Structure formats: C-alpha cells, structure tokens
From TrEMBL:
Organism: Novosphingobium guangzhouense
Pfam families per the UniProt record, alphabetical: Lipase_GDSL_2
Residue intervals of the SGNH hydrolase-type esterase domain: 49-195
Protein name: Lysophospholipase
Region (Disordered): 214-252
InterPro entries: RhgT-like (IPR037459), SGNH_hydro (IPR013830), SGNH_hydro_sf (IPR036514)
A molecular function (GO) term: hydrolase activity, acting on ester bonds
Signal peptide boundaries: 1-22
The keyword Transport is assigned to this record: no
Keywords for this protein: Hydrolase, Signal
Family: Belongs to the 'GDSL' lipolytic enzyme family.
Amino acid sequence: MIRKAWVGAAIAVALLGTGATAQDGNTSKGRTVRTDAEKPAANKIVLVGDSTMAPMSGWASMFCAHHVKSSTACLNLGRGGRSTRSYRQEGSWDLALAEARVAGYRRTFVLIQFAHNDQSSAAERWTEMDTEFPGNLRRMVEEVRQAGAVPVLLTPLTRRDFVKGRLNNTLEPWSAKVRDVATALKVPLVDLNAASAAVVQEMGPVRAMDLAQTAPNSTERDHAATGTTLKPRPAAEARLPDVPTTPDGPRGQFQRKFDYTHLGDAGAELFAGLVARDLARAVPELRSQIAP
C-alpha cells in the first residue's frame, strides 16, 4: 500500500515537472526540447522631415507600412511645415536624436529630408540656401553620428506644377546642396528629387494630379490639360470638410486638400516605392529588410 502511494506521488511530480496535469491529460510527449529564442538582430529607421514625409500628407508612413519588414522598427517623425531651422528650434530634432540613441538595436538609420519649408518665406521657417541650409544639414549629420546612428540624406520630393508641359522643379537647386553635403561628408544619399521629378514629368500635368490628397476641380484639371497648372488655391478653399466626430471618440483632424505638393494614398505608395528602391541601393546592409 505504501509502495503504491509512493509510485502515485512520483508520477504526479513527473507530470508537474513537464507542465502537464493529470486532469487535462496534456503531456510533452512528442515535443522537441524547449530552448530559448534567439535575440533579434533588429535595425531601426527614424524618418525626419516635413509634410511630404509626415503621416497623411507624405510618403513615409506608407514606406514603413508596406516596404519595411517587421525585423526593422520604422518611426515616422516627419512634421508638416518644418524646415531644418524650425524642426530644431521647436525641439523635434531633440526627439529624433533621443530615438537615435535608444539601445538594443543592431543599427539605427536616420533618414533626413528637408527643403520645402526652407524655401518658404515664413519667418520661423526660411533658411538661406547657399550657406545656412547646407550648414544645418551638416550639423544634423554630425549629431546623428555622435548619437551612434547612421545618417542618410534625401533630396526633397518634387512638387508637381507644370509650365508648358515641363515640370517646374524649383527644388532642384536645394537638392544640389543636399547632394554636396552627402558627398563632402560621405553620407548615403537617396536622390528622391531626381527620381520623383522623372516620374512626374513622364506622367504629365493631368495624370500627376491623381497623386494629390483629393481630386482637383474642373478648372484646375482643364488648365492642366493645356500643359500649365494653375497656382494652388488657398488651403481654406482647397481643403475637404473635416471628418465628423463624436464627443467620446477620436477628434483629431488631418487637413486634406488638393495641391501640387502633398500626397494621397496613390502618391504616397508611388514615392515610398522609389525610396525603398533607392535606399536599398544606397545602404546595402538594409537590402534584406526593405521590400519592393
């Protein structure tokens, strides 16, 4: 009797040791021996720029969602209306550097794209093209490296306004400054301005309108058919109505409007694909983490 009790207790202990119980009948029979999972060799991409990169108006969120594998963290810190000057002055650059310093990643890459608002006349935004703008980029590159991350420079996304059938790429001189900094400091470069300008020129003024956040009006479309686009309407006139909200639901709004700068889903997907293609070429170690 004592022997039977001892055998029963031994069986119960053995079952508990394997994580099984007599009640549920689960056993580890047939399973492989448990091992620990390998630590991931995860990378991180931090995207820094203006509205042509920002959520709901730029390409970067589509890039993170559709072109970056789950083994690489992808964080879009693009903000509308920012220049190399205002992005730093308001503190957004400090947030980006803090993200660059986060430990645990195999490598962190900081993608930097500005110029649209450096070209602006707004007092808090504009920078001088020949000296201040490239100087700001140089400082950003140096600080990213000091944070232990890898800087990648992008030339600005082209606008999509046309004159007599030719793309009016006013951002090309600013793009040249970005290229100069990349060459001088040996920084990987994604020449988004050149790539996007080539695609938009091939599309022409009418088809390129489909890349905007919303459709143009008939006057804008008819004028584009002549080869020359109209000037953008004021934002208050061109924007769509706000999305209805409820008192206890989400209440934030994205400004959605027709213009020749910002992107809807089709435009975001198109240019995110160009960035994915050219980033893989510029930074070979990311090729396995970037999807076409």
